[in-house]
Write the structure tokens for this entry.
Amino acid sequence: MVLLLLGTVAVLLFIVGVIVVVGHAYPGDDRELIDWFPTRSPEVEVQNEIDDVRQMLEAQNEMRRRRGAEELTESDIEQRVREDETWKARMRSRG
């Protein structure tokens, strides 16, 4: 029973060791080794984030218009974020 357990552990360690050695010895990029590449470029990701923020702001303003409240601008949102970050920093420094 002990020999079976030791044999299993030895085989697993050998497999992990081979993977580590191949990973270090491979001359190319890690992503190339495992054949992984991002599906979208960083530029596309940034544009998607910008579009998401614009859509969320438009949806928020639509709800505010229905309530009769004043619409928010991007600078209003940025100001709120700065205020929130300042408040969080103050709370962290207190505790």
In short: The CA atoms of residues 42 and 48 lie 10 Å apart. The helical segments are 2-25, 30-33, 42-67, 74-94.
